[in-house]
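Title: Comparing notes on inverse folding

I've been comparing how different people in this forum approach sequence design from structure. To keep things fair, I'm posting one structure and asking everyone to reply with a full sequence. Here's the target:
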């Protein structure tokens, strides 16, 4: 398998590729020597900053973690909804061709065949997502033509994990590794 199989996708979320690298983390600016900018409300509590504590109780930290997970789930749901809408619209457009009496039998047959491909692809994507959810908190497949971006929810994603995802995706989706990219969201 070539290293291009898990080419990193761009964007503000973190990506991993099979070349062993990963995109810079959100904390990369802190390590560049750039001056830190303090939030005006950061020291509002007299308890904040004492003994290295953030001033956030453990219970509040759990609530914040749950909110972050909800936000990630919302992102995954939105990506899946967009993909499903696009597939549904393409299917409906093909339905119009099939129902149009001015179209030739060949055009109608080609439209029916394309509908079958759309249905099969959606089934393979659902199967892949189900398999990925067994290893990751959440997973979604974003499709752009014949390219697929696999997005998983994880604290980190190393190149070994990315390669495993690409192998699974190429098998499930019946595509070549260069048609698959892997990304993760915390």
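Reply #1:
Here's my take.
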């Amino acid at each position: 398998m070539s290293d291009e199989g898990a080419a990193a996708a761009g964007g503000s979320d973190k990506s991993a590729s099979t070349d062993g690298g990963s995109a810079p983390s959100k904390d990369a600016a802190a390590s560049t020597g750039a001056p830190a900018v303090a939030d005006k409300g950061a020291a509002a509590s007299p308890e904040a900053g004492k003994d290295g504590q953030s001033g956030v109780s453990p219970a509040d930290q759990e609530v914040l973690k749950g909110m972050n997970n909800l936000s990630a789930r919302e992102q995954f749901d939105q990506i899946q909804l967009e993909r499903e809408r696009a597939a549904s619209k393409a299917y409906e457009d093909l339905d119009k061709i099939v129902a149009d009496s001015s179209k030739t039998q060949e055009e109608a047959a080609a439209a029916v065949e394309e509908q079958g491909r759309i249905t099969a692809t959606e089934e393979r994507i659902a199967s892949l997502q189900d398999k990925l959810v067994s290893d990751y908190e959440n997973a979604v497949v974003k499709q752009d033509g014949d390219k697929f971006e696999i997005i998983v929810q994880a604290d980190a994603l190393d190149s070994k994990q990315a390669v495993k995802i690409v192998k699974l995706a190429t098998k499930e989706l019946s595509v070549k590794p260069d048609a698959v990219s892997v990304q993760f969201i915390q």
